[in-house]
Amino acid sequence: MSHASRLILALDCGTTSVRAIVFAVDAAGAFEERSVSQREFAQHFPKPGWVEHDAAEIWDALLACMKDALEEARVQASEVAAIGITNQRETIVVWDRATGKPIHRAIVWQDRRTASRLVELRAEGHEDAVRAATGLTLDPYFSATKLAWILDAVPEARARAERGELAAGTIDSWVLWKLTNGRVHATDASNASRTLLARIGGNAGCAWDDELCALFRVPRALLPEIRDSAGDFGASDDALLGTAVPIAGIAGDQQAALFGQSCFMPGEAKCTFGTGCFLLANAGSAPPPAPAGLLTTVAWRVAGATTYALEGSVFVGGSAVQWLRDGLGFFRKSPEVNALAGSVPDSGGVVVVPAFAGLGAPWWDADARGAVLGLTRGSTKAHVSRATLEGVAHQVVDLVDSMESGGIAVQSLRVDGGAAASDLLMQITADLLGKDVVRPRILETTALGAARLALAGVSRAASSASDAPALKHEAGEVDRTFASSQAADARGAARARWRRAVDTVRAFGSPS
Q1: How far is CA 52 from the centre of its chain?
Q2: Please, is 97 exposed, middle or buried when counting C-beta atoms within 10 Å of its C-beta (0-12, 13-18, 19+)?
Q3: Rounded distance, CA 3 to CA 287, Å?
Q4: Which residues fall within 8 angstroms of residue 345, CB to CB, at 6 or more apart?
Q5: In whole angstroms, what is the distance from residue 347 CA to residue 375 CA?
Q6: Amino acid 5: pLDDT
Q7: Residues 6+ apart with CB under 8 A from 339
Q8: Is the separation of the CB atoms in 231 and 162 below 8 Å?
Q9: What's 179-238 look like in SS3?
């Protein structure tokens, strides 16, 4: 097959759905969607603050999407040059190596059940050492305490893990295991860096650490091999798609979006508006100290060279719209929020703080809970809907403010993700930010990043991400730029009111 007709199958394993996208790559390196298949899967909430997924259901949905996408594109698996995987990060799965079946539902990144354990570790004085080693903070958002919880909750699981009978990993590892029929148990450096079990920096860039594993009570025997984000991850079992297809790229969803947005130079930043909102900025080849409230993480590792990023994470972004749809019944389809929220010129004084799973960066307050403030008799569902979009935007602006306080100058904000399709949300974000918000032509840059990594991995054409012309082609293709239209004094007043609302929900959620 000629390079001009190369096809890449990107697997995007999100928090509420999975997708398979067939990309065609032309001779100049431009990527074009040929087909896409998407399926949602069930969200399980056993207790307040607990969030779980059925990993087997995720795999079944993903396999169906793969087959559907290939059929829609009218191509055979034998025509696909490589598979790239991107995934919701931190969500952890533990499965039986012999049967390939999970021993417990996957515990999702949003889950807060281990918050009390992190409080204990913080009280014992581990915070600074863990942050220095991992770039992360002690928060239940990350994988380590979730993994330990499963080992303690499932009878005999800890003993079986010590004997090497169980395997564990983030969703990418689970999907890779299923794709290869158990032949490959691996992850990439970007996903490993989100577990609290890997030390970043040094020659490897990211490596499992015995002291961290001991602190979080996680046996090393459970963990996958850490590999480059672009490279050899084996091949799919030929029984799945009719032929074996090389698996050549893996990255966590936010790092994949950074790659997909071509943020290859230090200081270039993007924000993904998905289930949550995630701001990442390329930090170069050495892990920098993060500004207060932000994290240092691995962006990707290609040809043995590690690139790092600064990150701020908002737990509830697009899922706030799902709450309006499913929890409050304001509309039947999520895009309808735009017309409803746009039917009023402002929120009428209503402020929504969507802290349904606590507050992420820069607050890192696991006890905070969501609130609707400022209601009057004249408040309507339109005002609450608009205030919800504003709440999502305010959280993103909080992240940008924190990043700039640490010396990262954000001139404009590149955006992507499903919720970035909302013109109203993007305009609100630009207004509150006081900067341009730039939306690319290919909005789903998470999948695009996975496809680019897979192309780099299978072709081995580049010694680093920024050296590959094919990986840069889409960088300047803009769909729309949203310019701020709000006066500085109005923006300042809105931001001050938001900060008072955040203070309120933090005080309300505090155990004391």
Answers
A1: 16
A2: middle
A3: 36
A4: none
A5: 10
A6: 62
A7: none
A8: no
A9: HCCCCCCEEEHHHHCCCCCEEEECCCEEEECHHHHHHHCCCHHHCCEEECCECCCCECCH
Report strand pairing: 269-273 vs 277-284: antiparallel
| Residues contacting 48, CB < 8 A, separation 6+ | none
The two structure tokens encoding residue 334: 């999520």
Q: What is the spatial distance between Cα 139 and Cα 447, in angstroms, rounded to a whole number?
A: 27
Structure token pair of residue 47: 């207790």
Q: Are 10 and 23 in contact (CB under 8 A)?
A: yes
Q: Round the CA-based radius of gyration of the chain to a whole number and report it.
A: 22
The DSSP bridge partners found for residue 436 are 412
Residue 1: predicted pLDDT: 42
SS3 275: coil
Nearest to 161 by CA among 171, 149, 175, 172: 149
Burial class (CB in 10 A: 0-12, 13-18, 19+), 54: middle
CA angle 335–425–480, rounded 5-degree value? 95
**What is the structure's pLDDT at 466?**
45
Instruction: Give every CB contact of residue 300 below 8 A, 6+ residues apart in sequence.
Output: 188, 189, 190, 229, 230, 251, 255, 258, 259, 306, 307, 453, 465
The low-confidence residues of the chain, meaning pLDDT below 50, are 1-3, 461-475
Backbone angles phi, psi at 183, to 5 degrees: -80, -25
Paired tokens of 146: 């979730």
Three-state SS at 160: helix
d(CA 180, CA 328): 42
Cα(273)–Cα(396) distance, rounded to whole angstroms? 9
Rounded Cα gap, residues 53 and 92, in angstroms = 10
Q: Which residue has the tokens 């890449």?
A: 8
pTM of the model: 0.82
pLDDT in tens, 191-243: 999 999 999 999 899 999 999 999 999 999 999 999 999 999 999 999 999 99
